[in-house]
Design brief:
The chain has 991 residues and is mainly beta. It folds into 4 domains: 1-19 and 36-279, TIM Barrel; 282-384; 405-656, no CATH class; 716-955 and 966-983, membrane protein fhac: a member of the omp85/tpsb transporter family (Porin, Beta Barrel), CATH 2.40.160.50. The strands form 7 sheets. The protein has a 16-stranded antiparallel β-barrel with strand order 33-34-35-36-37-41-42-43-44-45-46-49-50-51-52-53. It has a 15-stranded antiparallel beta sheet that branches. An 8-stranded parallel β-barrel has the order 1-2-3-4-5-6-7-8, surrounded by 4 helices. The protein is elongated, with a radius of gyration of 37 Å. It starts with a helix and ends with a strand.
């Protein structure tokens, strides 16, 4: 226990010295290392060679020192000679150091004072002699039980190395067990998160060169995700075999391959010549196909590499057949495409080279070469596009030359090729939050879905909904409810398919800084104006240093149906723990806004997708998917037609449902009470929603709850246009009581009961991407009756119809919602009401006007916290008591805690503020406050303040229900008779 505390106390101090080197070392895709042991004849050969300048592709000598040799002064001298001789000859130098099990201090003070030299006797002089080395391999031949002590020594030694060699690479190297997996079982426990900052590579001594590089990569990712690999093989026959193995393992993310060689040191020049070719550019694996055949048609070993500054590439023919046996003779090299203008063939053993032109043909070229002198490298020159085929970028006048859009994209494609060569598929955890907001309603509903996510290029994704949250409250059912999937028509959820190829036009707009990285800013738009597939336009930010994509901001152009606009911003983030010479950026964060035309209004969907725990090519990919297929969890798949549910089959598999399940039944129940009602109003009914009636894209919804009826129908694309046409009805069978106030006291003698039924015909059309104009022709019937305490001398208003014309406009952008409306209303009959000589009645008030403007914005914080704000300005003209603004629980003029009809005004300004949070994932609590300033001449109000406060709670109820509780009461205006409370309790059951 004491030792554990001592080691933990040093984590921060060690990280400060080792985790943040002065500059991260840059390594090529492939380097070859010859392992030597003292005495080292190959070091003497380097001392005798001509001086040369090292390049990025230079080979290296790796001197292995067992722990038993540390005390011998000749060991430090051998290291010093190696570093100096390698640098002079243009080679890299490295030292492989065995880390033995040694006792470590058990108290904090001694542990803090310990150094690599005091922990491992004899190691200090060797580290001093190794200054300037390019590689340090810290070797663990055996891993004992005291892993904490081994981690402590590893970090101390790595810190000492990094302090003297800020640009070196450090590898933690293990040995393959005799049986079982490639890595020893304890490797994962030794390579913990606190060790990770100290180590650049994960290494392995393989017992055989026949090991599968992909299997090695997968097993290493299980405990050291994304780290580049160091591989040491048993003795190889010569440099050609070493080159061949280095190319094989480099494709799996191993930039360093080392092995002893049985050949003479003079043959090592082959490695130097190939390293010189690699030093001409930043090479990586080239996925383009190529084939090499011998004189008898036998397949030969072949490897392709791509540089960063042209589209030609390099082909390595190591002079071996596919079994690794030497081949000397004629060879035919078949390339992938007729896009090469010339080739330079370099004999790596002799250094002789020959360059020749490749004739332009329609077929891929076949080159006749010779391997009689051993391995050859073929450097290809790409055939340039004619100038008329290039899209010129408008750059403007500048003192420095900017690259063209074509040059930036060419480098980006090379980055993309190198990144994609390192993975074939990935698994992750997908957490997507969708916030639904209907225009003119200052309320937001949030649904969050989370679960395992499996992606394969060209196949889309499968996603399991392991967790579902409604407004942050976790759904307690056995599986996530199958709800209508609201989505634009086949929008690319994660734009891995946007490859920025010749389907788009590009223009360089300038420079910017995004994600703390300097970037080129390019705009893009499709060349085709019409397509059955989604077309995008927008902006892409390309990293100026490594050519990776940083951010894509896109908008979909060819939208259909009810979709008005789709805007997405995708951030490509580096995978945690991914190191190496390629920025492993993936679309891990997507923020989007969709505007849909639903039920004669606009529904805004704000979506945020976060991918975490991303694993490239996990060995358990298929097994994990199979287990989820057999589970009861709800799953969806991305198809060519959009996202579809995956239904279970009797065989335990899953199949894609042809239907999108855009309809659903819900059960609704509850109770509502305010002082305008004689008794609590019970609600018990069903709600039906269908977003694709009869497969025609039409929308319908109906709620019937005994005393309450509401329904609507909408055609979002009338006659195939962008115009939508709809109708809605609303009615309530129970009368509410309207009681006026005078000098803060209720006037029960003037109380009136009323109820209404309304029907509307709506038409709307979008204007641009974020604005919609709508019009309504409506009619409502209102009937009135005396209340229990109404004075017989008080005349009740006459029952009548109200005919209404209203125009509306709504604008939504990045969470801001601005809407406005203006309505003209005409009563069919308006007899005198009230006491005789009532000054508020006028026969001319059978016509009145209403208007309103609202601005709303929600702010979403971590852990399902939300701040809601809204401002409403409402007004009337030529209105009376029964046509003025009525404040209550419902509608755009709602005022928290105020009973329906208890407060009326001719004009009002309302501000709303609320803050909600989730307790655990069980209960959502929200505090709300509404403040109104009301003007009403008959009541004596002149911007008189009224305010109401309330709380709202939501939780999962029994039998897979959602429960919503709202309570409120007036807090400002109680001296004017505004007392009492409002209570609403609702249950939602999803069938």
């Amino acid at each position: 226990m004491v030792r554990t505390r001592a080691l933990s106390a040093l984590t921060f101090l060690l990280a400060a010295s080792a985790a943040a080197p002065a500059a991260e070392p840059a390594w090529p895709h492939l380097t070859t290392w010859v392992v030597v042991r003292p005495p080292a004849p190959r070091v003497e050969a380097l001392e005798a060679s001509l001086p040369a300048r090292p390049g990025s592709g230079s080979p290296g000598l790796l001197l292995e020192l067992p722990a038993a040799s540390y005390a011998d002064p000749s060991a430090a001298e051998a290291v010093r000679r190696l570093v100096a001789s390698a640098r002079r000859a243009g080679w890299r130098s490295g030292v492989a150091l065995e880390l033995p099990e040694v006792p470590v201090p058990t108290d904090g003070r001694s542990a803090e004072a310990a150094t690599a030299a005091t922990l491992v006797p004899g190691l200090g002089p060797i580290l001093v002699a190794a200054r300037g080395a390019d590689l340090f391999a810290l070797d663990f031949p055996e891993i004992g039980e005291d892993l904490a002590a081994r981690r402590f020594v590893l970090k101390k030694v790595a810190a000492a190395i990094r302090a003297e060699n800020p640009r070196t690479w450090i590898a933690a190297v293990f040995h393959q067990p005799r049986e079982g997996s490639l890595f020893p079982a304890a490797a994962a426990e030794l390579k913990t998160d606190d060790v990770a900052p100290f180590v650049d590579l994960v290494g392995l001594h393989l017992s055989s060169a026949s090991a599968d590089p992909a299997a090695l990569r997968a097993e290493a990712d299980a405990f050291a995700f994304g780290r580049p690999l160091f591989v040491e093989l048993p003795e190889q026959p010569g440099p050609e075999a070493l080159l061949h193995q280095a190319a094989r393992f480099a494709a799996a993310g191993s930039p360093v391959l080392a092995a002893p060689l049985a050949s003479a040191a003079v043959e090592d020049r082959l490695l130097s010549r190939f390293g010189g070719l690699l030093s001409s550019g930043d090479y990586a694996r080239d996925g383009r196909p190529a084939e090499a055949r011998g004189a008898k048609g036998e397949a030969l070993a072949i490897h392709r590499l791509a540089p960063d500054d042209d589209l030609g590439g390099l082909v390595l023919l190591p002079g071996l057949d596919e079994a690794g046996n030497p081949y000397r003779g004629a060879v035919t090299l078949a390339l992938d495409a007729p896009s090469y203008a010339a080739a330079e063939v370099v004999e790596l053993a002799t250094g002789r080279s020959k360059r020749f032109e490749i004739p332009a043909t329609k077929e891929p070229p076949r080159l006749s070469l010779s391997l009689r002198s051993g391995a050859v490298a073929v450097r290809l020159d790409a055939r340039e596009k004619p100038p008329e085929e290039l899209t010129k970028a408008t750059v403007g006048v500048s003192a420095k030359r900017w690259p063209t859009a074509e040059e930036i994209l060419a480098r980006h494609q090379i980055w993309r090729t190198r990144r994609d060569a390192r993975w074939k598929r990935f698994a992750a955890w997908n957490k997507t939050s969708i916030r639904f907001r209907i225009a003119e309603l200052a309320n937001t509903f949030e649904q969050t879905l989370a679960g395992p996510f499996f992606y394969e290029p060209g196949k889309g994704y499968d996603w399991a909904w392991s967790e579902t949250y409604f407004n942050g409250v976790k759904w307690r059912g056995k599986s996530s409810p199958v709800l209508p999937i609201v989505q634009p028509e086949k929008v690319s959820e994660l734009p891995l398919e946007i490859t920025f190829n010749d389907a788009y036009r590009y223009a360089l707009e300038g420079e910017d800084t995004v994600l703390d990285r300097p970037a080129w800013v390019l705009t893009f738009e499709p060349k085709a104006t019409e397509s059955d597939k989604p077309l995008f336009a927008g902006t892409v930010w390309i990293d100026r240093q490594d050519d990776s994509v940083l951010r894509v901001k896109s908008r979909q152009l060819n939208l259909k149906g009810e979709v008005q606009s789709v805007d997405e911003t995708t951030d490509f983030l580096v995978l945690p723990g991914a190191l190496g010479d390629v920025a492993m950026r993936f679309p891990l964060l997507v923020k989007a806004q969709w505007i849909l035309r639903t039920f004669s209004r606009t529904t805004v969907l704000e979506r945020e997708t976060v991918l975490s725990d991303v694993r490239l090519d996990p060995e358990t990919f298929d097994a994990e998917k199979k287990a989820l297929f057999a589970s009861p969890q709800t799953m969806v798949r991305d198809t060519e037609k959009g996202v579809r549910y995956l239904e279970k089959t009797p065989e335990g598999d899953r199949k894609v449902t042809d239907e999108t399940k855009l309809s659903r039944f819900f059960g609704l129940g509850g109770v509502f009470y305010d002082e305008s009602l004689d008794y609590p109003l019970p609600l018990l009914g069903v709600y039906y929603l269908d977003l694709d009636v009869k497969k025609k894209g039409q929308q319908a919804q109906v709620f019937f709850g005994g005393v309450l009826l509401a329904g609507s129908f909408n055609e979002p694309k009338l006659f195939g246009s962008t115009v939508d046409l709809g109708a809605d009805v609303f009615g309530i069978a129970v009368r509410g009581t309207d009681v006026p106030y005078q000098d803060g006291e209720k006037v029960d003698a003037e109380a009136v009961k009323s109820r209404s039924f309304a029907a509307n015909l709506n038409v709307g059309t979008p204007v641009g991407r974020h604005v919609k104009l709508s019009g309504t022709v409506g009619v409502s019937y209102r009937d009135y009756a005396e209340a229990d305490d109404t004075d017989p001398a008080f005349a009740i208003p006459s029952d009548h119809w109200v005919y209404r014309l209203e125009g509306r406009a709504a604008w939504d952008w990045q969470g801001w919602a601005l809407s406005g409306r203006y309505g003209w209303n005409k009563r069919s009959r308006w007899d005198a009401w009230g006491y005789a000589g009532n000054p508020e009645w006028d026969p001319g008030k059978d016509t009145f006007r209403t208007w309103g403007v609202q601005l709303a914005k929600d702010f979403h914080l971590p852990k399902f916290q939300r701040v809601k704000t809204a401002v409403n300005w409402l007004g009337t003209s030529n209105a009376d008591r029964f046509s003025k603004i009525s404040f209550g629980f419902f509608g755009s003029s709602s005022l928290r805690g105020f009973s329906s009809g208890s407060l009326r005004g001719e004009e009002a300004l309302i501000g709303r503020l609320s803050y909600g949070f989730v307790v655990g994932d069980v209960f959502r609590l929200e505090a709300l406050y509404d403040q109104a300033w009301v003007t009403d001449e008959p009541s004596g109000f002149s911007w008189t303040p009224f305010g109401g406060a309330g709380i709202s709670g939501q939780f999962s109820g029994p039998w897979s229900t959602l429960v919503q509780l709202d309570a409120g009461l007036p807090v400002v205006g109680r001296d004017r008779g505004q007392t009492g409370f409002v209570l609403s309790l609702n249950f939602l059951k999803i069938f």
